[in-house]
Amino acid sequence: MKKSSTWSLVLLMLGLLIIFNGDFIGYSEWFVLGGFLIILLGATLCFVAFFQIEKGNAKFVNLALSILVIFIINWYRPFEIIRIISWLKNIS
C-alpha cells in the first residue's frame, strides 16, 4: 500500500471511531463535525490513490470501505448530517 491508500484507511477508521465514540464520552457537535471532516478527507485520499494510479488492490478496498462507512453512518444516525448542516448554518 502506498501513502494515499494507507492514510485513507487510517482516516476512515479514525473518523468512524470519533463519530461513534460520542455515545460513550457524551455527545458533542464538534466531535461529530471533526469525525465527518476526517472521513471526507479519507475518502478524498482514496480518490487521490486512484488518480495517482497506485499499484495493488488497496485502493479498491479503500473505495469500498469509504462507501461502507458512509452507509453505516447513515444507517445508524440518519439525521446526523442534517443536524451538523443546520448547526453550521446557525453559527454564522
Description:
By secondary structure, the protein is mainly α. α1 (3-20) packs antiparallel against α3. It starts with a helix and ends with a helix. The protein is elongated. The protein contains 5 helices and no strands. The chain is 83% helix and 0% strand. It has helices at 3-20, 22-25, 29-51, 58-76, 80-91. The longest helix has 23 residues, at 29-51.
Overall form: elongated
- SSE class: mainly alpha
**Uncertain runs:** none
Biggest β-sheet strands, sense, barrel: none
Got a strand count?
Answer: 0
- The Cα radius of gyration reads 14 Å
Q: What is the terminal separation in angstroms?
A: 41 Å
Percent in helix: over 70%
Please indicate the percent range of residues in DSSP E strands (runs of 2 or more): under 5%
Mean pLDDT score: 81
Number of helices: 5
What's the order of the H and E elements?
A: HHHHH
